[in-house]
Amino acid sequence: MQNINAQQVTETLDFPSLIEALNTAFKGNITVPQRHHHDMEQPGGQRESTLLLMPAWESGKAVGVKLVTVSPENGKKNLPAIQGIYILFDGETGTPSALIEAKTLTARRTAAASALAASYLARAESQVLTMVGTGVLAPNLIEAHRAVRPIHEVIIWGRDLEKARVLAQEVTASGLTARASDDLEAAVRAADIISCATLSVEPLIKGDWLQPGQHLDLVGAYRPDMREADDIAVQRSSVFVDTRAGATKEGGDIVIPLRNGVLKEEGILADLFDLCRGQHSGRQNDQEITYFKSVGHALEDLAAAQLVDQRLKTE
Asked: Is the dihedral of CA 93, 97, 102, 107 positive or negative?
């Protein structure tokens, strides 16, 4: 059994290959039972942590399960909010095939799913990306969006301006023009793509700020009581999700508008299954504002785990 660390995951899962692997997986026949989602109280008035168990299998090929904890208070300890492992098994014999560091696997596949959505929903000529958030996901999202659109400028906003400046320096070193901003409204208005990866409870993105032709990518706010964009953003946009079953139950950016009556389930135009299978063509014109909410799906983990396992076995 391979023991695959974070560095190997990063080096092996280049975004063009991973995005294509996810595209293939959403067209395929992978079984994904409902994931286990358990909220865990923390002492001292800290925000709850979450335990996730996410199984998936492709008949005769591979079986996998991700065990993940999400701890919102970890930022105060200079630790990523997401921690976990992924266990991959042979689909025919059930033999363990790989034990994979899941924090990095999750970050890579999450960013790849957003980029896959953007390949259908963002304007082809999108050049300016505003990144809202400075955590582990942020550099992955920037790199992933760059793999599908001609991004040449990145604006970074975070609650901690110094962290935004550090990330901007790292992005600049990778060959892009990047700068930190302390003006979120201006950063949103200037972008072609706005990608959000935060643990915000209250909406950060105001719908009144959105401009015709923009694509809004919402990756954080993973619980029903959390959200990154307000109701006006929903009302002004064409709404898409990674999966209908997950987004309508887990992410507040869909759950709360549904509860408020701002959004109807039939108002969700498509998910990644529909887009990848050609059942919806995605963006309809250059003036349309597109709104994509991702909550994560075990299919993405399995596809990423299979890719990294196969590549390392052939080295």
From this structure: negative
Residues 6+ apart with CB under 8 A from 39: 48, 49, 50
**Average confidence (pLDDT) over 217-230:** 94
- My answer on whether 276 and 128 are in the same domain is yes
Pairing between strand 96-101 and 153-157? unpaired
Strand partners, 37: 52
Cβ burial, residue 293 (10 Å; 0-12/13-18/19+) = buried
Q: What's the pLDDT tens digit per position in 113-160?
A: 999 999 999 999 999 999 999 998 999 999 999 999 999 999 999 999
Same structural domain, 251 and 140: yes
Which residues constitute the domain of residue 6? Answer: 2-105+299-313
In a domain, 113, yes or no: no
Q: Are residues 150 and 291 in the same domain?
A: yes
Extract the tokens encoding 144.
């992933």
Whether 139 and 165 share a structural domain: yes
What's the pLDDT tens digit per position in 60-109?
Answer: 899 999 998 988 888 778 887 888 999 999 999 999 999 999 999 999 99
Quick check: helix, strand or coil at residue 58?
strand
